[in-house]
Specification:
Elements (H helix, E strand, L loop, with lengths): L2 E2 L10 E2 L1 H4 L10 H63 L8
Antiparallel strand pairs: 1-2
Length: 102
């Protein structure tokens, strides 16, 4: 800590620089009791956000999968109808039944 020494016979003690004159007290600094819960709270908050993001993405994928299943069911029914129509048309025209399989 720098100190300024004044050579005057009337002043017996050394004069401190203004920023050195005040001492840091425990009231102004963060106490150790607050740091640990703060760190634990931050880590917990980050974990909650990660799992929340994962849940949102999982729900979006579930919705897409449900739509894909509906489209697959609809298209399968359409293909089955077309195959049945072709089977009926070929059976009536030739007189023999040769079913077309999928």
């Amino acid at each position: 800590m720098p100190r300024i020494i004044i050579k005057n016979k009337n002043i017996k003690s050394t004069v401190r620089v203004p920023y050195d004159a005040r001492e840091l007290s425990n009231d102004n600094s963060m106490k150790k009791e607050i740091v640990f819960p703060l760190i634990v709270g931050l880590i917990f908050g980050v974990l909650v956000m990660i799992f929340w993001q994962f849940t949102v993405r999982l729900n979006v994928q579930n919705a897409r999968l449900a739509q894909l299943e509906q489209l697959t069911t609809k298209n399968t029914q359409s293909v089955n109808d077309i195959i049945a129509f072709i089977n009926q048309a070929t059976a009536q025209g030739t007189g023999t039944e040769t079913p077309v399989t999928e």
